[in-house]
Amino acid sequence: xxxxxxxxxxVLVAIHFIFLFCGFFAPYDEAExxxxxxxxxxxxxxxxxxxxxxxxxxxxxARKEVExxxxxxxxxxxxxxxxxxxxxxTKSHLFGVDAxxxxxxxxxxxxxxxxxxxxxxxxxxxxxxxxxxTTLALIVGLIVGMAAGFYGSIVDTVLMRxxxxxxxxxxxxxxxxxRAFLPLHLSPEQTFLLLVTLIGAIGWARxxxxxxxxxxxxxxxxxxxxxxxxGATDFYLLRRHILPQVYGVVLAQAAxxxxxxxLSEITLSFLGLGVGEPAxxxxxxxxxxxxxxxxxxxxxxxxxxxxxxxxxxAYFLMANALQRRxxxxxx
Amino acid sequence: xxxxxxxxxxxxxxxxxxxxxAFLLFALAPGDYVSEIRLNPQISPETLxxxxxxxxxxxxxxxxxxxxxxxxxxxxxxxSFAYNVPVTRLLGDRVANTLLLTLPxxxxxxxxxxxxGVISAAKQNRWEDRAVSLGNTTLLITPDLLISLxxxxxxxxxxxxxxxxxxxxxxxxxxWPEKLKDIALHAxxxxxxxxxxxxxxxxxHIRATMVETLQSPFVRAARAHGIPRGRLLFxxxxxxxxxxxxxxxxxxxxxxxxxxxxxxxxxxxxGLGPLLLESVLARDLYVVIGAVLVSTLLLQAGVFIxxxxxxxxxxxxxxxxxx
Amino acid sequence: MCALKLKVRSIxxxxxxxxxxxxxxxxxxxxxxRPGEELALSTAQSGKYGGRLAIxxxxxxxxxxxxxxxxxxxxxxxxxxxxxxxxxxxATQNTEPxxxxxxxxxxxxxxxxxxxxxxxxxxDGAPFDADDVVFSFAVYLDEKLHSPQRDxxxxxxxxxxxxxxxxxxxxxxLAQPYAAAERIFDNIAILPRHxxxxxxxxxxxxxxxxxxxxxxxxAGLGPFRLKEYLPGQRAxxxxxxxxxxIDKEKKRLPxxxxxxxxxxxxxxxxxxxxxxxxxxxxxxxSADNYAVLERDQQARAxxxxxxxxxxxxxxxxxxxxxxxxxxxxxxxxxxxxFRKVEFRRxxxxxxDRDSITKLVYRGRATSLVTHVNPANKxxxxxxxRLAPRSxxxxxxxxxxxxxxxxxxxxxxxxxxxxxxxxxxxxxxxxQRSQIATIIxxxxxxxxxxxxVVPLEFRSLLDRVFQTxxxxxxxxxxxxxxxxPNPQMNVWLSTGSNHLWNLGENKPATPWEAEIDGLMKQQLxxxxxxxxxxxxxxxxxxxxxxxxxxxxxxPNILVGAKNKVGNFNPSILDPYVLWNADELFxx
Lengths: 331, 323, 586
Description:
The complex is a heterotrimer. By secondary structure, chain A is an alpha+beta fold. Helices cover 60% and strands 11% of the residues of chain A.
């Protein structure tokens, strides 16, 4: 494996690791409300106390409402709470402060829920929706593409016409329409699975076409022809000779599709067709920005959206690296 | 001509397949237009039953589709329950508004992308190319949603551009140059967002095609003949690289439609996107199908136009279809 | 003034651009007052003529036909184009003469005789008389048309009989006494017989006056008439030059030349347009947006008003339906809990209503104990009070009802099943979703696992009304009138909005039977104090038995530019435009 590929893969694995264990990295549960702190700005970390002494351990000040009924908050540094690491309450967390203090490094939402925690939990949901949908699309695409490429003739014609049907659709429009046909009365977990299935089911056509192309050229290669003459079964040929040839294409496709499908989930949730309260998804968090007062008043609500840029950059660079590697594979 | 004809037939088959798909799925959905009226405490159950019957919710799916298809062939795409007008009329205005965004956006995007892509290819791996590639990558990975929201925020904060809808109040009294200016001002932000969302894809492709063409023997020969650089790039190399780019035109329209949906919803531009979302939520059966069909048609039209251009520009395709 | 009009029409993507010369913007002056016209006198401050008012609507009107309209936007526009015989004044909440200048009730309360104004003309100049009234009621009562208004005009299973006594006198015969009968005339628009008779005889009146209708084919008796409708963008209404009201200076109303309704699909976009000065009035906004606008009111020359609680009440309710669909076995098992009044009381005690009013409505709402809201001073039972929130009390009630807690704090029923249920909310109503999320958190404190399921509104209604596949839901009901009568179909056990247990022929519990009796009795009781006593008891029963757990009633929040004169918003729908005839621009 060449080095840029390894580097970006490592970055991505690290990112996903953090999100996978979001329960540990987040200071609170995604649904935990602090009703005294609706739309509170990010908590500041202090190192210098009131007496002017510097300490290694950061602390936060108590939060109280500004008294002019504007709904704003200010710090009350007569009460301070030290930030502790590896705290264990009912669950263990990477960091936190002692009650009644609260630490919300990315601010809070309308119900006083910690935005950092919601971001971590939401990112887990969106990212894994993208990953699973990609897996699904690629599996379907692989089966269809290999069948079409290997068997040719009528199978090929039917499958590829079907793929064309799907490719000819403006797919975000279709996704939106299809999502609304399906039951909405589902738990967040079921909605998650539904979204994954839906995105995957609509997205199989492009990988299928690419894989078919690789299989078509691959099956003309000498060792496949020889294998066939020696009486190998179709299944054997597909598994032992054809499948290894399409791995590269599948991986490169995956790196391209994952961010696209993460975005699909985000779009659906943004439009109110994804997972609902109290579960967080990046789309839900971004959706709050459709509200005028949030967009204009609370800048910290932008952070989850902006964080998508580095994430997608990592995927983009990995896809690039994969593609470059693919070009060097002698076919 | 056979090439074009086969594309046309192909498109029609696609449309029929899609309409069946959309109609079937939709018929399975729970809830309908009449359910909303229920919460009005002044309506009796008999009234509701009668309304259900009147709207044909009690017929079987097959009967409803057959009715719809028969009418569609006569140019009648059904009726919007929510708006109480023929779907065709409803969609007509919305499509026009969407085109008002997408056509200028396509044009502008190409106008921006061609020089940047060509120059970036000519200066391959030098600082110009790297700068372009950096900006391009940033744009490419930034979701349309985020671009839209940022621009909305910008417009609201500065107040330089009107947000929401397509025209200001008092539009009717304006003379037409003012009208054009008014629409242009309203469209400025959505079009900018759309341009930003497709330009990076275009630049990437244009650069790649140009780089490839630049390495071909005829360019080396031309360079040896001492043809000036700018003239060489735009008069000789670019036309030679055009064919793959024409196919890209069709593809870019598909991208654009997706971006337009989000942008229109975020900016409340009265195009196809908000209509689709609204009718999906209202379960306005025929409008949803109509909107999906129309967007498919727009996409296919884009592909068809690029096919036409390809047909006109590439003699190989013409000879093949003649034979 | 003539202008070149660029019109883009297209059929399925094939755009056709046509240039069209349109002559518009002639302002219609009010007609001089003629002798013999029996005009109504407005008591509002005299204003000056001219100007155009703009207001945003959340959705487009579905029709301009007052007979078939069901949606809010159509009502908002069409209400300005038409007039009724007896009107409910939105400010005083009392009835006042409109097209009927006076009326008499027979001693038995069964016959209403209305005297119509003479010399009144429709917006096209045609005269109005008793024939128009008789025709209009014939249309509303036509069974084939399924007009939503028909339900109100059928008293004791018999439609009201309408007869013409003379050209300006109409008699209405009721089958049984009907409390506050004159209130039912409100919002029954009188139609122009001369324009619609033929359409009606052809059986096409249901399709008449659709949004594609030409303005010149329409006429009404309201202060305005339709000028233009642009789908997806706006509708404009202009002065009805023949309107039948004058001000103190004998000037014919309305003052405004035009009102423009802009179609702005989201609340937030409406707020943006009001703030940027494009629209002059705003209503129906969240408290958050209200706060944003309030900060701006000095700088931008508009003012915001909080009118206090409106008639909308939001509530949580459980599925108590006795008829359940097949496959809804899990709901049936949970109904054992839901049917226990202690369980419902415990839930009610556990809910932090103050947090709802504080977080969801930023303090601009009232915590509710019953469906009757403190704003409804006429009908409120002041003796029904809200007990303060108490998780301990809730636990106590649950314990007496046979529930217990496991080691980890999970509430379990007597049979040992953990208490879990889902709460449906409307996904398009951010505030109700927030309410449900708060309730979910409150119930977690007493060991109940509630799941919030935001559903698209129509699917939600489908589940509540048709399939009964739900466990609990948060909904809101509004009211067009403070009177108890429009609430009949919520409280009667046969009522179509008896949400928690629909499709019943007889009351399921003794207290529901008592409510049935009380509601029917008040309907045919004519004296208000006697009716009030009956309705007080209904409120007591609702608070004790909690078929719906009422939560909060949001305040009506409105705003207007400072230049709008006679701005007098009301807590009754339509909040700001009900006196459109008296509004003027300074």
